[in-house]
Amino acid sequence: MHDVKAVVFPACAALCALAFLYKLRDVRHQRDDPALRALLVAFSCKGVSFTLSTPLVARKVDDALGVRDLGALGIHLFGGVASSAAFLTAIVYWVYPREEARRRALARLGAAAVVAVVMFSLWIAAKSGVQQRSAHYLLQNAHRPVVAAYLLLYVSAFGSGMIEIIRLCGRYGRVAGRQWLRRGLHTTAIGASACLVYCLNRALSVVTVQLGLDPLEWELLTPVANGTGIFFLVAGLTMPSWGPRVSDARRLARNFVTYQRLHPLWHALSTAIPDIALNPQSDNRLTHLLPGDINYRLYRRVIEIQDGLLALRPYTDPDVVAAAERSGHEAGLSGDRLHARVQATSLAAALRAKRDRQQPGGEPVPLRPDATGGGGYADEVAWLLKVARAYTALPSAERTTQ
């Protein structure tokens, strides 16, 4: 068990340190943000607690200061009482108006201070008559009434904080306006639930020792629950900061992939109608792979494709459209897949007609049927992707424009 804790708890301490440093960057721009200050305190307290929870560190602290079980007291005060109050304070300032949040936060901090004083008094009382340090302070002394009272007070303060966090995150996570705040609150609730499992496990040890059972037999639950809890707490409470950057990165990646997939369709049109390209000289192989401002480049590509389809309208052949529809129906296509196949086939025929300078007779058929549902830019991009996919699926002989 010590081996597991020696790995998990230092990792948890490092995670808290990273979260602290990440949020510390915001102090310069948010000096008056009480939620930010509360998060910094919470991550600091949790980091100290996990450091002390490492068996070797706790023993070294006790030996260096000459006070047995001092490390255990630090674990419980910093990791349970102080951190839960600080986490809850941050969330309170997120979900309540500032004045109401201040009132609720002060009440919680005051209660935490009282609990800390009582726990310290019980810890002092528990030292009387005991000379040996306990490797597992709570579990090895849970049969003693004063330590049992200390333990129950500790898990009550810690657990009540986690319950309140779960309640607030569940309540306001459903109505939060910002997407990443909503996700962060839900993720935080998962972390608080894992910490609550740890609290319940510790509270049950008071009963199990009276039944002659040894809580150390399932002590693996402690590093598992605490490790899971702090991971989700850190992720959830920092998510409103880094989440939007993830969305931006995903959007850029999605636009880049879309830009590449539209290239065959754009290339066929711009080769046949060079005037549609805003800056043909810049559309070389390097620009294709490294387009720069991908959002702008994708927007330009969509506009240029639309211009190309409009310019090819005089070369569309109603007979080709009708034949493509029949072929698509025979192939079992329907809906957008059928429309995209028809448009791709008509486009290829129109490109060949323009190359051969042969305008079909009859009324031209629009190369862009009303298949986007009258939507906006996103719907237009989605539709052109379907057409581009259908166009690249055509036999190479049909796509020849030179």
TrEMBL record:
Domain (DUF6545) ranges: 253-392
Superkingdom per UniProt: Bacteria
TM ranges: 6-24, 36-58, 70-94, 106-126, 146-163, 184-204, 224-242
Keyword Endoplasmic reticulum set for record: no
InterPro entries for the chain: DUF6545, MAB_1171c-like
Alphabetic keyword roster: Membrane, Transmembrane, Transmembrane helix
Region (Disordered): 352-373
Stated name of the protein: DUF6545 domain-containing protein
